Amino acid sequence: MQLIRLKIRYIISCVMMMFFAACGEEETFPITLFEPGKIAADASGVDIKFGEYIIYTDRSTKVQSRNWAFPGGTPGTSTDSVVTVYYPLGGSFKAILNVVFIDNQRGQHAFDIEVEPDPNNQIPDYDYGVTYGIYTEHPDIISRLALVRSVDMNHFPGIRVSDAFEGVEAYKFGATGESDWAMGALEDGRGQYIDISSFENGYYHIGLKSSSLAPMLIRIRSAGGGNAVFEFTASGEEYGFKRDGNWHLVSIPVAHIKQKDPNINLAQITEFILFRSGSGDVRTFDNYTFFVDHVFVSEKMEEK
């Protein structure tokens, strides 16, 4: 019995010694706080001349995924860490980097970009007075059609392209080669009439571009059979339309439209520009492509 008590006391004393020994020695554990990813990027320039390019570099940390957006640039998007972007048009643009970090948090970095306009495609700077935009994105022309659509009337479809006179889009009409003649037009996308009657003493402006040597008829049509037809030739350069592959603003007095067809209804314009091939088989020309942009009317056209 005495032996059992001694064993119990021994065990208790050992446990007590271990307890006090543990309490006397404070054990430490290293703790590392998580450092979140940081968004960072740079650009080789933000104010460039036409024809130059910008190199964008993502310098963010702990990146899980990234996406660049370059409105107005080529390419328009990218997931690469380093991207070279060209701008085919002058203007003001945004370049935006969106990043998802490894902890699924998100970050964004944006650049404001200024690109000098193409010196060969400058819009003449006149005092136009009151204006109405038919197909234009120019910031000075506030009133405009809400929607425009193209109509392929005979193997001459119009498609939207980024090669614009101003803004970010234009229409490109090209003969498909399925017929010896071609015809296509632009009209109000809602199927409504276009009223330019208040500009009867003003000007009708059309941005045109082509290097084709083919003759082209440009018509402006209205309800009731109104049809004002203008012939444009490569050699004649009528109303300043040169076939040099650059944009030109063709400005036609509205009075000339009335002279072409006295019965045209300016309050009910249907096709505000209609291309109809001139003489000759369109398939015999190496190039039968015409661009149109920046269509508007103005009360006047005076040098500033």
> What percent strand?
35-45%
Give the helix/strand class.
mainly beta
Largest β-sheet summary: 6 strands, antiparallel
Helix content: under 10%
Could you report the average pLDDT, rounded to the nearest whole number? Answer: 90
What general outline do the C-alpha atoms trace?
elongated
Unreliable segments of 5+ consecutive residues: 19-24
- How many distinct helices? 2
Order of helices and strands: HEEEEEEEEEEEEEEEEEEHEEE
Round the Cα radius of gyration to an integer and report it. Answer: 35 Å
First-residue to last-residue Cα separation: 123 Å
Using DSSP, what is the number of strands?
21
InterPro entries: Galactose-bd-like_sf (IPR008979), PKD_dom_sf (IPR035986)
Protein name: PKD domain-containing protein
Organism: Sphingobacterium arenae
Keywords: Signal
Write structural notes for this entry.
The chain has 304 residues and is mainly β. The strands form 5 sheets. Strands 10, 12, 13, 15, 18 and 20 form a 6-stranded antiparallel β-sheet that branches. It has a 5-stranded mixed β-sheet with strand order 2-8-7-4-5, with no helix packed on it. The model is unreliable at 19-24 (pLDDT under 50). A hairpin with an 8-residue loop joins strand 12 (158-161) and strand 13. The protein has helices at 2-24, 254-260, and strands at residues 41-43, 47-48, 53-58, 63-69, 77-78, 82-86, 91-101, 106-115, 126-127, 131-135, 148-154, 158-161, 170-174, 183-188, 203-209, 216-221, 227-232, 248-253, 271-277, 289-298, 302-303. It has 2 helices and 21 strands.
